Amino acid sequence: MSDSEQMTDAQAHAAITETILNYAEYVDGGEIELWAGLFCQDAIFDEGQPVQGRAAIQALLPKLLRSFTATAHHISNIRIERTGLAHAKATSYVHAWHRKVDGTDFEFWGRYVDALTFEENAWRFSSRKIEQFGARGFDLNVDQVPRRDPNV
Q: Is residue 109 in some structural domain?
C-alpha cells in the first residue's frame, strides 16, 4: 500500500494545504528549486501561457522574479477535493503585492486552480492555472476568473 493510500482525507488535506502555502513562501523567498519541486515532473503551469515540465517551470521563475525586488503572496479561501487516493483538485485565492525594479508597486487579486498528484512521496501540482479577478499597476495576460451573469 502506498503512502497516499494510507492517508486519511484529513491528512491529505493538510499535506495539500502545505503544498499550496509553500508555493507562496518559496516564490517570496526566491527559492527557485524548492518552488519547482512542488510540481510533478510533467506538470503544466499556466500563467497566461502554459509551460509543461518541471525543468521548464523551474526556468520560468527567475524570468518572472527579475521584474521585482520583493513580493508577498497571501493565500486564502483554500478548497480541496480529493478525487482519488493519489489525486485531488483545489482552488485558492491569492492577493500578491510586488515591488517592481523601478520602485513602484503592483498588486494582483486572483485564484489558483490546481490539480494535484501524490508523486515522489509528496503532494505536487500536476497543473496550476492562475486566473485574475483584477490587478493594479501592471498588465497581465491571464484569464479572468469566470463569473456567472446575474441577468441569466
A: yes
Closest by Cα among 17, 11, 9, 145 to 78:
17
Question: First CA to last CA across the chain, in angstroms?
Answer: 49
Q: Give the Å distances, CA to CA, from 80 to 35, 63, 87, 128, 137.
A: 20, 30, 11, 14, 31
User: Is the predicted pLDDT of residue 69 greater than 70, yes or no?
Assistant: yes
Question: Looking at per-residue confidence, does 118 or 152 come out higher?
Answer: 118
Asked whether residue 152 is domain-assigned, the answer is no
What does the pLDDT average to over 94-103? 96
What's the rounded Cα separation, in Å, for the pair 16 and 36? Answer: 16
Binned at pLDDT 50, 70 and 90, residue 4 comes out as: low
Q: What is the mean pLDDT of the chain?
A: 94
Q: How many domains does the chain have?
A: 1
The CATH number covering residue 20 comes to 3.10.450.50
Q: Which grid coordinates belong to 48?
A: 497566461
Inside any domain, residue 149: no
Q: Which domain holds residue 52?
A: 3-136
